[in-house]
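--- STAGE predict ---
source: upstream dedup step, 1 unique chain passed
mode: sequence only
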Amino acid sequence: MQGNERPLSKEFGRRLPYRGEKYLLVGVIGRKSFFDVCFCVPVNYSDEQIKVACKRIYCNLARKDLAVKMQEYAVKLKVAPVGFKITGARTVLGSCSANKTLSFSWCLLTGNDDVIDYVVVFALAHMIEPKRSPEFRVLMESILPDYKERQQRLRILQEQINSEDWI
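--- STAGE serialize ---
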């Protein structure tokens, strides 16, 4: 965990990561969880319900945000994925199946946009070059000239994700 962040519990006022920024976790009156400039969950939720609600919020954000990024980079790479799904994987944050369906972990959204973009381009590039060959590296560099630095930042994000006990 970073700094003074603690395991997710009923501590409204703590900050959760989303696309390189930290947003408050706040309790709201009602029965729905949502994101609106902060992570909003019902004030009467238990610690476990807060955890589930936050994961659901991240999944909803991932579906929206990653669809936009996927479309942007698919145009640049001239590929057309069959579709994509959101998972809760902690190690593989993005992948491409043989049938050209992409998978992304909602955990990816706890990172910065440069890392998110790297994972999206990485998955899309595998539609063109399935192996991590020299051609694959050239393809990555053509879209993200600093992809090696982004790859290093992805490793740091993965370490952070694996150290969190609420994800």
